[in-house]
Amino acid sequence: MAPVRLSPALSARGRAQGRIIGDFCDAHAVTPYDTILYTPAPRDRDAFAAMVAARLIRREGRAYYWFDRNAWDAALAARRRRMVPVAIGVALAIAGVAMLFYQG
Fold this sequence. Notes:
16% of the residues are buried. The radius of gyration is 19 Å and the shape is elongated. By secondary structure, it is mostly helical. The protein has helices spanning 12-26, 45-53, 69-100, and strands at 36-37, 57-60, 64-67. A three-stranded antiparallel β-sheet has the order 1-3-2. Helix 1 crosses helix 2 (45-53). Helix content is 54%, strand content 10%.
């Protein structure tokens, strides 16, 4: 399985992922039985290819796709698990700097 790179909505890649997911959810293409014929917009092609490679969007047949919500949720959970130590480290660093300036 390819590594999943989820991007926040603030980045161009994150906005592209949001547009693609919105297209699939609007069409209710969230199960293998509800595939849609989909061609991404030119500005979203790279993000779409990455999502297909990461198996967040599944391909059925030639150009029929569906959005795998379970894979997306698992990828988000994995990203959150990786970010927890970073957030704790940043919080401890901020607390340490604040203590340096404390004059009690």
